């Protein structure tokens, strides 16, 4: 009896009785209390179990506790691989824009390797490998011929290093052409090996590269549309790794089951934290992180090719899967089936600026023209008010000293200031430590006059998948308190809504190619990409065109 009387719920009930002046408890009362206590405990257990189940995302609740019986991969993994292997691309616009994206990305890589001394330290063979290996990847703009894995890193890092490659915006902010690092390295090596063996049926063509590019864009873009990895502190390059793993598996000719295994391991890897992309820790890792993802994608595909099994519930496994460990218990929200929408709407950076701030720079040029017309200078400016989207506030609203190119190219204030002072859009050199702008006191004076705030409507339009706006507004107040008319621009040059975008992309590619190639070679490349024969051109023949005329 004493054991029962020590029950927590029984003691509570006795206390309840005492409050209503029932000081004596008979044997009947006792048995009632025992029954009540047992029933109450069972009910509480049911409630607790129900509550804990309700806190688990639906997909996790549907998975049985006994994991050994699982025979199917998580739905998202299967969708990625089925799309990669089965979807037929029929959109003419997708093929056209994919070709532009290819040229833009390679051009961005040549610009990076020609401009950044930091990058030059990273590219090249893995010690102690020689500068060239037989049938290796010929890294564009260099004389290196690298192994397939290091080639993927170097190409991915080159494309992304100056933040001058394309972008696609949503709940997450990514650069889909990062994937070309894995795609081009893999396709080139496979093509060279097949050519060396005279295995004509296995030689990959530029059509294979464009298919892989379109599909990598789509996988990455669909996952980023409504899934904010940044909110969980994760870097967006996880999507490069996943998308590249899928399409590289296809390029290698892996069966679907091995491709699923490779993709599952891309999720299982976890992910780099976003700390190196935001103050106070911004650093050059943000520039080579995409190369790291490309390298890992190729490694995973190669391991899957040997027969390494996958992790079937890599995403949904309770407590140990991606959702529970890294995504705060949330599951992915895919806004639509995979198709070709991302390549058809990707945003090309036709000048060197972080995409969220580009319309602000175009607005700044309009202000320059107005000040010139009024015979005024930058010293006549009292203050500059900027309205922008939430994403720009997170990424680009930097205060205090800017110590590195990584700081400057992600500072909206710095970018606006040098645009006003130059009366021209920024160039890659303007962000470097060696640039005169990095030490010009007038830049800091203007930065101090700039205030930036979020505009809720701009943020809403940014997330609207039918608009994908990158709106910024700038309003200048002069020293005599005169206010100039606010300049608002919603879509920058390079946006899918700007008709001149593809023409500007070609001009940009020409400029970048000229850093390493002769005009004759550039014309040859562009002519080939505009002919139907381009689709049947071997990958190694195409890549050979980017071996530099001069070093």
UniProtKB/TrEMBL annotation:
GO BP field: propionate metabolic process, methylcitrate cycle
Gene3D superfamilies, sorted: 2-methylcitrate dehydratase PrpD
Family: Belongs to the PrpD family.
Domain MmgE/PrpD N-terminal: 79-333
PANTHER family: 2-METHYLCITRATE DEHYDRATASE-RELATED, DEHYDRATASE (PRPD), PUTATIVE-RELATED
NCBIfam families: prpD
Ranges where the MmgE/PrpD C-terminal domain occurs: 351-527
GO molecular function annotations of the record: 2 iron, 2 sulfur cluster binding; 2-methylcitrate dehydratase activity
Protein name in the entry: 2-methylcitrate dehydratase
Organism name: Sclerotinia nivalis
Gene Ontology annotations for the cellular component aspect, listed alphabetically: mitochondrion
Domain of life per record: Eukaryota
Keywords: Lyase, Membrane, Transmembrane, Transmembrane helix
